[in-house]
User: Fold Conserved domain protein from Collinsella aerofaciens.
Amino acid sequence: MWKSSTQRYMKDYLRNAVKSRNDLLEGRDICRGFIRFDLWERGKLRHISAVHFPERVIQKSLSQNALVPAIVPTLITANSANIKGRGTDYALKLLKRHLADHWRRHGREGYILLGDFSDYFARIAHQPVKDQVASALLDPRVVALEHRLIDAQGDVGLGLGSEPNQICAVAHPNRIDHYVTEMLRPESYGRYMDDFYLIHESKEYLQVCLLLIGRKCAELGIELNPRKTRVVKLSRGFTWLKKRIFYTETGRIVVKPCRDSITRERRKLKKMARMVADGVMTPEQVERSYQSWRGGMKRLDAHRSVLAMDALYHSLFENLAREGGAQCRPTRGTIQAEASPRNSGEPATQSSGLSEAAAK
Assistant:
């Protein structure tokens, strides 16, 4: 509870909870406006509209006790975002299984339709979302509350930073998901929020699917991004969820980080090294950040990229140690990288920690 708003609420949490309950029972407006700010997430600018903490408590209860139990069971298993037990790892495992199934049938021959919803959250039409909520929930008071939260976003769009908005955004294209899997019936289909794919052996079939999906999107007020929506030959590889994915000659499915994510981490390390030298950050904070990135990379086929990033990390902190003394030295032991077996089908693993050489 490091935020002052959280501390103030928890100081008198019983009184605050009773006040929220009375406001809801008496039909008072609980919306208190938004705290708007921007942040960069994986190289993309996000416009955040966070709610005040008392309203966030109400929205949390609304989400977990009404929206999730009513809406999540209607979603297909290939819908991977913002659902307990799912996420990017789940989405990538599902995609790898779909690619493996395709290889067993057709080898590397075939195509994948990659789709993206343009400026998804900012362009979500309110009426289809309201209709979906009204059909899923039975209590008219809960329906009215969620409709009020949707209207508070403006005339169109749902803001990032609100849990009910995340659930509604995940479920909004649910009609498209069921239409694709039950009517179009491609070999494989998956969606992660505003990114989706279809796999099939025929390019012409996927082009027809794209046309029909575009019509369904128009009915829901969703616009496809023409720059990112395309049909790609599987043998050439493709990028999905910031990962580069392709078959080897033997049918092994390789998942690598895209080049932009590697470049972004290199720039981030150099910037954090300057912040450590200026006393803005501590080496321990940088280490935690780097180990977090490294842990994500260990799930991918990124052995060489991690070794190169380790070398940059050590180089930066060796220079800081020479210039600034012990306070700039990393705190852990050596990063031990196992030799990567060039002919094996699995990426080599690495143990965590930082180089002792950087502390000398």
User: Anything to note?
Assistant: The chain is about 50% helix and 15% strand.
